[in-house]
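Note to self: user wants both folds in one dump. Writing first protein now.
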Amino acid sequence: MEPEIEKIAQWLNKNLGISHRFLSERVIRRILHGRMQHLDMADAALYLKHFVANNGERNSFIDEIVIPETWFFREEEAFKVMVNEAQQRLRTPSQRLNVLCLPCATGEEAYTILLALHEAGIDRSRYNIDAYDISDKSVVVAKHGVYSANSFRRNRSEEVRDRYFDHNQGIYFIKPQFKGHIRFQVGNLFNVISAAGGMRYDFIFMRNLLIYFEADEKARALSGMARLLRDDGILFVGHAETGPYINEHFERVDWPRAFAFKKRPGVAVANVS
């Protein structure tokens, strides 16, 4: 492996937790050469210095890695669990819910959280939604709430499009009354954990992220999620992420196809940095 590729791979693993298994040497080389061509650079060593020194360039490199694959109401049972639990918790008049969506990609999942709570008749003043992604480009799309038909698949696609979106020539714009209610931000998982302070969440959607991590990063991520969740909080993961490694801190919620987990009582959670 060329030294420039190796150092970029090490940076991505250390700072984002992305494993070498997921991000191959061939993929890094392709992105590296593409960025060099875009910047009119012929020297890989010079590009590496630019990569290390320039946050904007690192974000551009990351944008080439991230391929958002999501749609509205994907694996819908998770949202049913969230709504059911939310309605029970909000019986206490002073209760307010916090929801975290990470990674949020281009926003389909975060908006689904908002729409599901809206459909349940839960007043907007009773919850907050935070959404993070490592890709600047994806976060910009999410903030604008502009989508193609590809974001509407399977579950209730026509109903969701017609009820919650305006459209023009195959482009769908989330209606104004649903914009501005989600705090979309650029950030990676471990930075979010470190910066959370005393913030605790009732629901965390961390779906299809653990598949990119090796065992150590998975353990670190799950420990961080356990720290961010309230004691009765629920973590939602992807259908391919329910392996034995999750059982140290969590136990499955008895709801088919929701891929939902609650913290084990009394679990001690170490700080994650």
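First done. Writing the second protein, which came from a different request thread.
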Amino acid sequence: MPRCALVRRRRARIAKSSWPRRLVPTLLIVEAVAVRVRTLSPAGFLRLAATSCFSLFVVVTSGAFVRLSGSGLGCDNWPRCGDKPYPERGYHAFVEFSNRMVALIGLALTLVTWLASRRMDGLPRHARLTALAAFLVAAAQIPLGAITIALNLNPLAVMAHFLLGLTVLGLAVIVLLEAWILFDGRAAAVGPRWFRNFVVWAGLPTCAALLATGAVATASGPHPGASAGVKRLGLAITDTVYVHVRVAAAFGIGVLIVGWFLWRLRDAYPGLLRIWATLLVALVSQAIVGEVQYRNALPWGLVLVHVFLAATIWALTLAIAYALWRPPAALARK
């Protein structure tokens, strides 16, 4: 049955049902999404995976904005915002509650992506499990957010919240690449096996260490997430930045090594070299922003840009590491 006819048939059935009238619009939306999931093409699944990935990137950035703008306790309870389920007044309450709504959109998209992956013929089993993991980890962000508020923005809880968000983003990147392969086919693995293992087992842990040390440095800085009464990590910002900079230098050297190998393979995988070039630009920009923000007492706007670039570096690094083993065919075309 054509999709439009199926939608009309289900709408008529819901309209004639005994459901309360106020629930009918919601049920119609759910049914429309369900029908689209059941009839999704590989191109549609690719668009869905890309939208889900983008939304999770926005979640990470908006969460950082909440903390850096001092709005972490704008709603001092959860899931309500004060006495109401929505913010009545106040800039900080609006910012914190808006982040909850952004996170819910990201969660909904991970759920729809997982449901769609179950109906995509040709999608490997590990891609479906990755989509499920993305949804489950995104859902885990909800109770962790409540715990973070209950602990009065304890820096360890805030760091866990941030790093878990990056984990969801990484899982979404893998699903996106598999959706791209499903749509356009897969090329042969890139380079020798030892090179691919080097990127996965050395590059990814170093990038994760870069993010973790950056989170520790931020937790030691002047942005606790609320105006007053929030404890800090107890480490000197100079010490945490010292470690973070040296991890960044090690990661940068690794990026240059990978780039040298990809340059030698540029005729076979020009698209992969372009992704690496984007990573290099993000890494250089990150270093410049980091130096400027440190010399100017860490203004929150520059710290937000730093977090945005950190999420970009993580997503691109994971994309390169995964694409070395399973590159979409488009990356091998000029």
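Dump finished. Worth passing along: The radius of gyration is 22 Å.
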